[in-house]
Amino acid sequence: MSAALEALTVPHAGGPLAAPQQQPPAGALQQQQQPPAALGAAPKLLDAEEDPKAALKAQAAELESQEDILFSCNICYDLASEPVVTLCGHLYCWPCLYRWLQVQSHCRTCPVCKAGVEKDKVIPIYGRGGNEDPRAKSKGEPEAVPQRPAGQRPAPVVRNPLLQPNANVNAQQGGLGIIPTLFGLQNGNGNGGYAEPLTPEQQHQAFLSRLLLMLGSFVIMCLLLF
Amino acid sequence: MPIDLGRVQKEIRDIDRDKASGVTIEVQGNSVQKLIGCLKGPRDTPFDGGIFYVNIELDDQYPFVPPKMRFITKVWHPNISSANGAICLDILKDQWSPALTLKTALLSLQALLSSPQPDDPQDAVVARQYMGSLAEYEATARQWTQTYAHAQQVVGLEAKVQQIVEMGFGREQALAALKRANGDENGAMEILLGA
Lengths: 226, 195
Ligand SMILES: [Zn+2]
Ligand SMILES: [Zn+2]
Fold this sequence. Notes:
The complex is a heterodimer. Chain A is mainly alpha-helical.
């Protein structure tokens, strides 16, 4: 809620000038026009205690809301239906976020953190249950809300088979200095074993360049030794 | 589309539960779309000791549009109209976001009382005084707080409510009408008789 906090601590006034109207002199007591300040003499806030049934209901709702609070939409405060998450990580119902993006004409931002939000860059969340939430229906949307954008499907990260015998590689590197690197075993992330998958063509090219390098260094070594 | 009742009720419950926040809210009549907010004047300001009431109206589009807020209690402040309580605050205009709430808005009003923004005034006369002579502004603001926002004014209201109740109206009705008439008992009677 950084934006909200910001808004709280730095109130920024802006707007049209009010036409100056009759200003009572500073000290003038206007007793005949009693200020409405008194109105809340006994502030009657929505009081659940008036009705025990209502109180129970409220309590139940409270418990429920505490459970749901992690996964509640930042706009309607309900458990997010058709949940989507923005790139900045804030959770919304798709209908709620869509509506907000429609309302915001000039610059589309996340309601919570004001980061930029693009409609087709939000990430849908697919839980275990069906993707349809009955609440989405009960809320009723007169204007058609389009489908959530689909999730992205990046290619899976594969374990590179070349990098499997990590322990051996490291041992060799320790013993033979630069030589192992010449054999194409340079191993940037020696302990992880995960690497960007290479296409066959890339592998072929890598092999060729290593071969050339090896030949070159062999020639140099020959020149030095003999 | 009707207003999102669930969210507004949750908001009211949250304010109700958080006694430490220094702001309260009260539903006006049957609809949650008309409310009255209440905030304490911040310490070390000319508004210290005052209790300020704010009229709140929620559009059907809330929370996608900001709540409409206006001070009921008269305030002497560069960003609040001394005539009608209109407020000049960015989050109640183009800086509104549905992640903000009635509570954060009321707290923002409290913060606005502490730190006026005379460059962007709502009330030109007050702003001019604030820029020209701070001491004078503070004296006036303090005077207004004492006159309009101090707790002893409560007694005056109770008398008016009694007066209207004696004419055969309900207490609730009387309070609501007085609120709508900004505390003027004649206005309140007109509302009650006209309705
Ligand atoms: Zn939602
Ligand atoms: Zn965000």
